[in-house]
Design goal:
The chain is an all-alpha fold. It has a single domain, classed as Cytochrome c-like domain (Cytochrome Bc1 Complex, Chain D, domain 2, Orthogonal Bundle). It has 5 helices and no strands. Helix 2 crosses helix 5 and helix 4 packs across helix 5. The longest helix has 14 residues. It is globular, with a radius of gyration of 18 Å.
Length: 131
């Protein structure tokens, strides 16, 4: 039988453990970044994705993103880019409170879930080389 102190420690470990989505999956993140139906990142950005024929030129290259920013900075930019820079044309993928003219089916829903944002962060951290 477990002692009460051990039970408390085991419970604390479970409660304080990061959720599974907090780890992020780089392969899923790559799919979100390069898929035009989900992230739409390549509508404005370009990067080391030779298989993607049409890439944007309105925003910085994603090449080297993992060298330029750490996980927290990438997460902040993806989650609430307009909170960091009100003039940004990048949508805030994780917030809903400032959205306007949203179709009823999408009201109150972020573009990406927290897990999807973590996947994108994990992928962008792998992009450390310049093009």
């Amino acid at each position: 039988m477990m002692s009460s102190a051990r039970c408390v420690l085991a419970l604390l470990a479970l409660l304080l453990a990061p959720p599974a989505w907090a780890q992020g999956d780089a392969a899923r993140g790559r799919a979100i970044v390069t898929t035009r139906q989900k992230g739409l990142c390549l509508l404005c950005h370009y990067g080391p994705f030779p298989e993607e024929r049409f890439q944007g030129n309105l925003a910085p290259s994603l090449a080297g993103a993992g060298r330029r920013w750490d996980a927290a900075a990438l997460r902040a930019r993806i989650t609430d880019s307009q909170g960091l820079n009100p003039d940004s044309i990048m949508p805030s993928y994780g917030v809903t409170d400032r959205l306007r003219d949203v179709a009823p089916a999408f009201r109150g829903k972020p573009i990406l879930t927290e897990a999807e944002i973590e996947d994108v962060v994990a992928f962008l951290l792998t992009l450390t080389a310049d093009e």
